[in-house]
Amino acid sequence: MVAESLFFSAVLFAVGVIGVLTRRNAIIIFMCVELMLNAVNLSFIAFSRLYGFAGQVFVIFVMTVAAAEAAVGLAIIIAIFRHRQTVNMTAINLLKG
Predict the structure, then answer these.
(1) Which partner for 16 in 35, 47, 62, 90 could form a disulfide, CB atoms 3.0-4.6 Å apart?
(2) Does any domain span residue 90?
């Protein structure tokens, strides 16, 4: 059971990394980062079946960070969309001088 969960977690994490590296839409990149966080949560739960409840405590912390990241990330994406009228990452060059 643990091996299957870790394999599925690795596949989810790889899909998230590929999505972050290949996509240009900020919302899709944001969803891929969330997918990677969920893959880490799945691996924590799989390891908690072997080593006790410590992994489940880490899952609570990761979910808290993910919720805060979702709120702040979506607020930034909405602010950029209102300013630039796009969420395409190639068109967003806010850090250029």
Answers:
(1) 35
(2) no
